[in-house]
Design brief:
Radius of gyration: 21 Å
InterPro entries: Acyl_transf_3_dom, Acyltransferase_3
Pfam family, one: Acyl_transf_3
Structural class: mainly alpha
Distance between the termini: 15 Å
Keywords: Membrane, Transmembrane, Transmembrane helix
Number of helices: 15
Number of domains: 1
Strand order of the largest sheet: 1-2
Largest sheet: 2 strands, antiparallel
GO molecular function: acyltransferase activity, transferring groups other than amino-acyl groups
Protein name: Peptidoglycan/LPS O-acetylase OafA/YrhL
Shape: globular
Length: about 375
């Protein structure tokens, strides 16, 4: 979505912005060597910013469900879907790949094999640095997204209700459990491979599909705001249970799904201003640019971070200043990349995809006409 246009789903934009900010908070603290060490509560909040990636995945699946009805009007809906997804992701990703060849502070391996794996978006399936990790900082999540796009239209076709979406979640959890049990014999570093694999992270997307179907019926609920308030109030409690290792069973990562489900549905029902506002919505609009450019910018600021930490400030004060300076650099650069490249290529790609997918024609009184557009659900 272009900033400035009417935002029909402000809670989604806000969640993207919150996720992007949370990831940046984590990386400002964790990337420097030595990393920032804070007291327990800020440390827990900041370190948990890596959860922002799973929030991205959940929101992504929800958003994809919103856009699928428009493909019902296309002669080649799968082609239209994949082309739109490609032009949404690839142009900026490719630009950062080129830039990272010149500025590669993490020393990720650039060679013909890793470059081809990244350009073709198959790298999530290949273990090793530069492959599954990507050759750009934190780019592994893009491999997960692109892998999910390949199968999403088929999943969407089979999950047209809350019950069916829950069934898909159960299947995804079973697949993830089997994957975790067998992958150790197949790769050298199963811990990293599991954490960054679509097979392990697919349940996060399923929670987004469940949330989509719940929102479709939530508009008919009485006491919507009260229910939304209860869901939002449960989020801090769920967060505490997760970060303190008190989940009742299973890997803690999958309990992030219910937590973010409650956050999304809660904000739909009760969009509180501290979370859904102009700032978070704006940050959400440019969140993809923020995500791809923040790593190199933070790395470039390491010398300044070191100076702050030796200037007599407390560790928390130094971190807060480092975060503020990082955002002051990241947001303008992300805004520039959004307007100058990301949004332009995305809009062009939509038009190209529409032409290639073609519109279905229906016969009315013996005359073939283009099928009317299907409205997108709120």
């Amino acid at each position: 979505m272009t900033p400035g246009k009417s935002d029909r789903f402000p809670y989604l934009s806000a969640l993207r912005g919150i996720a992007a900010l949370w990831v940046v908070m984590a990386h400002v603290a964790l990337m420097p060597n030595p990393r920032f060490v804070l007291s327990w509560w800020p440390e827990t909040l900041v370190r948990s910013g890596v959860m922002g990636v799973n929030l991205f995945f959940l929101v992504s699946a929800f958003s994809l469900c919103l856009t699928m009805p428009k493909h019902d009007n296309e002669q080649r809906p799968y082609l239209g879907f994949m082309l739109r997804r490609f032009f949404r992701i690839a142009p900026l990703f490719y630009a950062v790949v080129i830039f990272s060849y010149w500025w590669n502070p993490a020393g990720l391996p650039y060679n013909l094999k890793t470059i081809l794996a990244n350009l073709t978006f198959i790298f999530n399936f290949i273990p090793g640095r530069g492959y599954q990790t990507s050759i750009i900082f934190a780019g592994w999540t893009i491999g997960v997204e692109m892998a999910f796009y390949l199968v999403f239209p088929f999943i969407y076709a089979k999950t047209k209700s809350v019950t069916l979406a829950i069934r898909a979640l159960v299947i995804a959890l079973v697949v993830a459990t089997v994957f975790r049990s067998v992958i150790g014999d197949l790769v050298a570093d199963p811990g990293i491979y599991i954490r960054q694999s679509i097979f392990d992270l697919a349940p996060m997307f399923m929670f987004g599909i469940i949330a989509f179907h719940v929102v479709q019926i939530a508009g008919e609920w009485t006491h919507r705001r009260a229910i939304g308030a209860v869901l939002l109030a449960s989020v801090p409690l769920q967060f505490y249970v997760i970060v303190t290792g008190r989940v009742p069973f299973g890997p803690a990562i999958y309990w992030q799904g219910p937590m973010f489900f409650c956050l999304l549905v809660g904000l739909y029902l009760f969009p509180i201003k501290p979370l859904v506002n102009a700032a978070t919505r704006w940050l959400g609009d440019i969140s993809y640019s923020v995500y791809l450019v923040h790593g190199p910018i933070i790395a470039a600021l390491f010398p300044l971070f070191g100076w702050l930490r030796h200037s007599g400030l407390s560790e928390l004060q130094a971190y807060a200043l480092a975060l503020a300076i990082s955002l002051l650099c990241i947001v303008p650069v992300a805004t520039l990349t959004f307007y100058a490249w990301e949004n332009w290529t995305n809009e062009w790609g939509k038009r190209f995809a529409s032409r290639r997918a073609g519109k279905k024609r229906v016969e009315i009184d013996g005359v073939k006409v283009e099928r009317p557009a299907v409205p997108v659900a709120a």
